[in-house]
Amino acid sequence: MKAIRYLGMLAAAVALASIVAAQEVRTDWDKNAVFERFHTYSWGRVRTSNPLWEPRIEEVVDKELSGKGWHKVQDGGDIVIMAVGATQNLQEYQTFYDGMGGWRWGGFGETTTTVQNYRVGTLVLDLYTTNDKHLIWRGTASDTLSDNPERNEKNLDKAVDKMFKKFPLKK
User: Fold this and answer.
1) What are the residue ranges spanned by the domains of the chain?
2) CATH assignment of 2-163, given 3.30.160, 3.30.810, 1.20.120, 2.40.50?
3) β-bridge partners, 27
4) Which of 84, 90, 127, 160 has the highest CB neighbour number within 10 Å of its CB?
């Protein structure tokens, strides 16, 4: 009976991992903005809970925008980019039934509740017009973080790639 319960717990843990590991990427933009007018950008502030990630974020975004024909300038670009990265600790509660009775069937069974802790990282990228500081585009990405920094960097690459997939927007 214990083997069945542990197999059930393992299956649920795998299901949880696949649910929380799903990367969420969203974009929104000013429908009146004419993106064809913009060709250069400068970086404003980049803030993260871990300063090691600030240049990584800039590098990935620079690569994406360069591939779209945009050019980075030190100051005075058409667009100013601001980025915020944050992490949050979350918990998921999983309850497992041994399949022998329990409250559902009126019998006596064992239930086990476990707590799964995981960290979620969120990146928000904002593009503002330099002259009037008008927000024209926002991209957000959230993903479960790994203890492996290389895996997190790959996930950052994927998230930024998804954000800029249909960029620049055309009317």
Assistant:
1) 2-163
2) 3.30.160
3) 139
4) 127
Per-residue pLDDT of the chain (171 residues; tens, 9 = 90+): 444 444 344 444 444 444 445 789 999 999 999 999 999 999 999 999 889 999 999 999 999 999 999 999 999 999 999 999 987 776 677 777 766 655 555 556 677 777 776 677 889 999 999 999 999 999 999 988 788 889 989 999 999 999 999 998 876
CA angle 114, 117, 119 (to 5 degrees): 160
